[in-house]
């Protein structure tokens, strides 16, 4: 089975992502650079949203992140993100396992959300504010993932409501795909598409998301 590749961190939507990138290894996913974002005036705006809700430790928990994202209006005309989606956003980037998110991690998330939102709007051709199962499959392919029809069916069933996928559920799907693929990829040292898990390691990696 082929595993996904990334054109860039969290989704660099370009024509290359429609097929396998040149550096795709045997396991089916390409390498991607560590996140780096030169300072821009947008940082000031992001920091204002972040610092307005952050605690004295300079970090936010899931409830604070939910308030921050709602106040920022990043979801646009779509419904604000649910608390559960915010929890898994933090888990995706919680490299020190504090259950919270610092500003640098928030900037990574902000970039991801903007890219995912752009992708959602691209496939929502009827501008209904939701996407159907074939549009979700297209969105996943645009992000560089190569998944089997069976896996796509499972994903659609998990994240659709009456045959439609709302933006919040779509983002939750993107977060989980990104986090679980990262978890797998770090252990697939030979990029062969399969690994041996210790049960406890598997539970730690999957139950957190």
From TrEMBL:
Domain EF-hand: start-end pairs: 111-146
GO cellular component entries: cytoplasm; endomembrane system
Entries under SUPFAM superfamilies matching the protein: EF-hand
Its membrane topology: Peripheral membrane protein
Keywords assigned by UniProt, alphabetized: Calcium, Cytoplasm, Membrane, Metal-binding, Repeat
UniProt-recorded Gene Ontology molecular function terms: calcium ion binding
Protein name: Grancalcin
Organism: Callithrix jacchus
